[in-house]
What we know:
This protein has 73 residues and is mostly helical. The chain has a domain at 16-65. Helices cover 78% and strands 0% of the residues. It contains 2 helices and no strands. Helix 1 (6-35) packs antiparallel against helix 2 (40-66). It is elongated and about 50 Å long.
Amino acid sequence: MREVSIAYIDAADRARDMLLCLGVLMQGLGLVCENYESPSGLKEALYLLSRSCDDASDDMARAKAEGLPPAKA
């Protein structure tokens, strides 16, 4: 198993937490758009961003668990 520096792990944790927060914000904005009948394109874009944040967070967590650098988008 490769050694991974604590700084790298901390940076990955912060980035994962930020992406999770962004995902929650995007879901909330999507619900607001839905409740106020905003254009459907905006709602779909927000949900897509939310899913992208979730996917990136999952990839980073998986890479951290395996001791590998996260994949580039």
